[in-house]
Fold each of these.
Amino acid sequence: MKNAIYGGVNAAVLTAMGPDLAPDLDRMTSHARWLLANGCNGLGVLGTTGEANSFGLHERKAILEGLVARGIPAAKLMPGTGCASLTDSVELTKHARDAGCPGVLMLPPFYYKGPSDDGLFAYFSEVVQRVGGGVAIYLYHFPQQSAVPFSLDLIGRLLKAFPGVIKGVKDSSGDYANMQAMVREFAKDGFEVYSGSDEFLQQILAEGGAGCITAASNANSHWGGIVYAKRTGPEADAAQATLTATRRAATSVPLIPGLREIIARSTGDAGWRVIRPPHLPLTAEQAEKAWAAWGAAGALPLPGMATAKAAE
């Protein structure tokens, strides 16, 4: 897809924290810089992997402001702004727009289960109207987590009602047929489809999708960048095989603490293991399993990470 705002590889960025569980913006900024220098075209911050729903409204604003103040380009950032509260979603979306972010990723209102498409349409209509433009909205389809899916019919209605505002989707369902259907139905209208699963990057690009937004990109973005640049051929195929293997390595243990463990070991910075409850750090056994799995995938040491840490 040409002219996609976030076209390419986007990491669903981990949120660094200090011992008091407060956001550690210096550590997070360092990681963001490494990602942008090692295969990432953009950064999805304050999503599932970033533990957004473990942070309050003011904390989420401070994290975004802190990254921009430390030199991470707002144009590269896609913050998550979808909340159960309509007014919180509006406030965070306006804040992201005013910070200079071109787009936001929005979960559906996830507390009440089984809402109708009419109810979801009404929710997003209110959000769009109250925000008042100036920022693209990307839908976050993750039914395993939110229990509130986006149907193709609903997406079509939103695109018709708000052309150019409802700009794309991150599909974390793991259902490639659903991603494929979204591309075939809506990409012709400039709707950007991003896979939330690393193993589908090469396929979705060939289909006409825009790229990926994934958790494992925190550590495998080097190979994602190769797939995005090359698309086809032996080098791209080998890089895609590494993406698939690292995705499986990432999900061999609880995903978020597992990625923190890989970054902690790769940087020598134990602070990356700090995580907010109800999540917990990996056990020693899990940590060894995760490290061994990434090694077996051929992804260790992470390209440039130790060098980047030493240069700070």
Amino acid sequence: MDNSPTALFENYDEDFKQLLASLKGKLEGDVKQLKGEQRKAALKKVSDELDEAEEIVAQMEVELPSMPTSIRQTYHQRLQTSKQALDKVKKVLRDVRNEGQRAELLSGPGFPNADDPYTDDPDSYSARTRLLAGTERIADGTDRLKNAQRIAMETEDVGADILRNLRGQREQIEHTRDTLTQADSSIDRAAGTLKKMIFKMYQQKFLSAAIIAVLVILIILVLWSKLRG
């Protein structure tokens, strides 16, 4: 089994596509046709599958930094496409939930004319207006929450990149320190060898001077003995 980052990404991507197709099918078909507890159960299943899809996308993002630089950009674009598709499904789910909540409220006992858009009852119109305004506020709050979550995730990614860079710099510093330590040891050995060479040089000079002195003395003695004879 190929466990390379590219192969794992492809496997995650295939699982994500199948799960995304299942989510779209439920949201466009099953959920809209169901009511009551069956609808709630179907929405719960969709929410669970959506969480699973988010986990798959997160795993795809984890594998991305380990890929070769030459292909990383291509897979990064595919990851962004998957994220955009996931965001669209989230929006559809949010709209479906809002429609369901609106339908339940408007069909309640407090809205006798809720199904009649042309009613002249001011109480019904005011209640419907407040309901729509409240629904819009909920949707706006959800969007702001999603944006805050996205910013937090982007900030986390930036922090992770900084930590990886710092880790790489630390490894470089440690490597440089080890190199300097080895260089210091080599310099110490070279200095010791040079001292020995200098000592031997002076020793040889002393021996040479002594030999020359002996030879000079012998020459003088020979000349002196010949002059006397």
Amino acid sequence: MPGASESKGASARSTRADAVRNRQVLLDAAAEVFVASGVDAPIREIAAKAGVGMGTVYRHFPTRADLVVAVYRHQVEACAEAGPALLAAAGSPFTALHRWVGLFVDFLVTKHGLAHAMRSDSGGFEALHAYFLDRLVPVCEELLDRAADAGQIEPGTQAYELMRGIGNLCAGQGDDPRYDPRRLVDLLLQGLRQPKSA
């Protein structure tokens, strides 16, 4: 029969696991809300999407800036982890690249909002931008290399230039409802295709 100290240890582990789960659910919900409504979306909307109370949001993220930065890091990690997973599951390196770029575009919506939200803290934003490049450029390079090795795209496209080009296409996304960056990003990707795989 477990002793009191073992029960307390199990209870503490369960509480920590619940807190980690709540944080992940909040980050996923906030990312969805930020993509749909921007980083100025009401916190109550994020709490409702996550199925938690406002107090839970503020316990994990005392300020909006804390939440935005955490979502940014969370999305960078999700994008970084998605690359290898998509390569393993997609069957075609070009399909994996295409799906990864879709995730990257969703992330960029939040990233541009973050740049606006953190304009007073340029040092903090620069550090996050360096982290973004360190994590995502190698993933994009791997996707491009695999698609080129499979003869599905023209070789020679640099990951940084592709990511920067996609970022430029996404920059004005919220300003004009007639503008759909995803359509242009899709055209950009199709332009990488080898003629024989088109």
